[in-house]
Amino acid sequence: MDRHVVFTPSGLDGVVQDGITVLEAARQLGADVDSVCGGRGICGRCQITPSIGVFAKWGITVTPESLSGLAETETNYRAKRALVPGNRLGCAARICGDVVIDVPAISQVHKQIVRKDLDLEPITVDPSFGLFYLTVPEAQLGDSVSAADALADAVAVQHKRKAPRVARRALNSLHSAMAKAEGEVTVAVRHTQDGDQIVAAWPGYVDAAYGIAVDVGSTTVAGHLCELKSGEIVGSYGLMNPQIRFGEDLMSRVSYVMMNPGGEVELTNAIRGALNEMISNLVKNAGIEVGRVLEITIVGNPIMHHIVLGIDPTPLGMAPFVLATSESVSGWATELDLNLPNANYYVGPCIAGHVGADTAAAILAEGPHRSKEMQLLVDIGTNAEIVLGNTVHQFAASSPTGPAFEGAQISAGQRATAGAIEHVRIDRKTLEPRVKVIGSELWSNEIGFAESLGDTTVTGICGSGIIEVIGEMYLSGIIDEDGVVQGGLASKSPRIVGDERTFSYLFYENGETKLYVTQNDVRAIQLAKAALRAGIDLLVEHAGSPVVHDIRLAGAFGAHIDPVYAMVLGLVPDCPVAGVRAVGNAAGAGAVQSLLSRKLRYEMEDVVRKVTKIETATEPRFQQLFVEAMAFPHKTAETPNLAKVIDLPVRSAKNSDGSTRSGRRRRPASGVAE
């Protein structure tokens, strides 16, 4: 007798033979029900929730007798492994009537998950690897079947799949697992477009495997350890890129290679050493064996991409900036000297000579190619990657902003650590500053500020603080739109200090500690922001001068920028302030997505081939756009949206003696929200 079966929430339904298990019915109809053990009642992954009642939508009535009674395996599992109340094991419950079966999230192979810490959108987990528990008869004298053949056949028979190939490098682990297994083995199978492949094996039952997603930045390296079935991020770890000792910016590192024979090997060894340190800490902190890590996905800018792979990066340091390959690259992790004996590595695709796999991953995470409206995605670091696009077309460029935004080249600059100033406000009348420091919630003019710092001392100003202090200096009239520190204000405030032929602003002092913004500091920020803005404006022109109301700031630096101050400096075009938002480490989010989902990995590889790369170095308009972007907020572009939320100085006018005078445009409300 045939039975009508409906699976929710997928809505799949069909007719199956009376008496088969729910798991078998799911396989026949293509429903999403997980099972690692192959239906032996061991893993508990196939838990289902039967629904009872009348279901008019499908025209069926379900009673408690529509499924068989509790089987012995279910009774045992409920006692030992805490079967969720009301649930049944799909491998044990048999269909005796028309049924409606709900598949809870814990039993779905392709689970919907949300990553708040990485600003990930909901994704469907579909990793490149699966675990299969097998029962294999012990070999007898005279048997001609090898361990590899026995396991491949067991996967095919016990899990009703095509027999997988066996990776040559996995033979040792297969043989060893078979010898210790006493007939029970778990194998890891890699799913590829060319078919399945067994890559590792363990004796007994193993129910979890892991992957690592890494964003190799020029300044920092960030990794995330993920469980491949659930998609959960088990742990994260970050460290400084040790290549900094060869140069703060990428071109300095390329120059090091050019000038030092064997320099590329030094750079490669340094980053691989950092990756191994990260791997060691991730698995140690999670309390897992390193052999359970089956894949590591790596994204980074083109130079990092090449150096990790052991490719000479020097062609990327000179025109025409030719990549060794723009395609994704994969292989065994041990080929990259990574301490991952069972893992495959996947390095994402690049877009062009200065737009790399990190940008490809950021595109995947933020989805300008999925947006009907124009989206501007800016990843600000020592090199700024810019993407502008929608569903119709996407453009990308890279601008050499340098390390100024991260504190380098700034007299009081430092990285974002305890003791660094991250927020600054300047009184418009007295020019007196107040600051907030990483590690304290109080402003420096509030009672208890010094005590709140504890043993921490104020040592400098980090990137977000630099943006704010320059912005506040402009809004307060300490610098004009051309970035010139107004020495005439020295008579008004002792914080305007002569510095040979220029002037500086003293924005923090405590005893012997005095922190200044010098004229050279302002110039460094101007050069960096002009390079970034000119690249953005260039893409806007190529896209047909669209109005952009969706601006996303990515990267560790972009995540901490106040959108208002980003617009005050002119880092991004004028738009409603609510349209500018930080999205965190978009490249890292994309790396995690490409680790957990084959579909998204293929999407990333497809979309980067369609991106139009704009080379700023050869664009005739870039220099003009750069000059116009040197001014605060911009020499020619209007800022009506910004003017609605903050008082902006009017353009300076020249007096007869050559000095400048300035006023202030007003708005209904005043000040910046704190």
Write the topology of this structure.
Elements: E1 2-8, E2 12-17, H1 22-29, E3 47-51, E4 53-55, E5 60-62, H2 72-81, E6 88-89, E7 99-102, E8 112-115, E9 120-124, E10 129-135, H3 147-159, E11 165-166, H4 171-181, E12 184-192, E13 195-203, E14 210-216, E15 220-227, E16 233-240, H5 250-259, H6 263-286, E17 293-300, H7 302-309, E18 329-332, E19 344-347, H8 357-366, E20 375-379, E21 384-389, E22 394-399, E23 420-426, E24 433-437, H9 449-452, E25 460-461, H10 463-475, E26 496-499, E27 502-510, E28 513-517, H11 519-542, E29 550-554, H12 555-558, H13 563-569, E30 580-584, H14 586-596, H15 598-608, E31 612-613, H16 622-629, H17 640-643, E32 653-654, E33 660-661
Parallel strand pairs: 1-7, 11-13, 14-17, 17-19, 20-29, 22-31, 23-25, 29-30
Antiparallel strand pairs: 1-2, 3-6, 3-7, 4-5, 8-9, 10-12, 12-13, 14-15, 15-16, 18-19, 20-21, 21-22, 23-24, 26-27, 27-28, 32-33
Helix pairs in contact: 8-14, 8-15, 10-13, 11-16, 14-15
Can you walk me through this structure?
With 674 residues, the protein is of the alpha/beta class. The protein folds into five domains: 2-107, Beta-grasp domain (Ubiquitin-like (UB roll), Roll), CATH 3.10.20.30; 124-203, Ubiquitin-like (UB roll), CATH 3.10.20; 216-347, Domain of unknown function (DUF4445) (Nucleotidyltransferase, domain 5), CATH 3.30.420; 365-403 and 524-583 and 610-637, ATPase, nucleotide binding domain (Nucleotidyltransferase, domain 5), CATH 3.30.420.40; 412-517, no CATH class. Helices cover 27% and strands 25% of the residues. The chain has 17 helices and 33 strands. Strands 16-15-14-17-19-18 form a six-stranded mixed β-sheet, sandwiched between helices. It has a six-stranded mixed β-sheet with strand order 30-29-20-21-22-31, with helices on both faces. It has a five-stranded mixed β-sheet with strand order 2-1-7-3-6, covered by helices on one side. Strand 26 (496-499) and strand 27 form a beta hairpin. Helix 8 (357-366) crosses helix 14, helix 10 crosses helix 13 and helix 14 crosses helix 15. The longest helix is centred in the middle third of the chain and has 24 residues, at 263-286. It starts with a strand and ends in a 13-residue tail after the last strand. The model is unreliable at 112-117, 654-662 and 666-671 (pLDDT under 50).
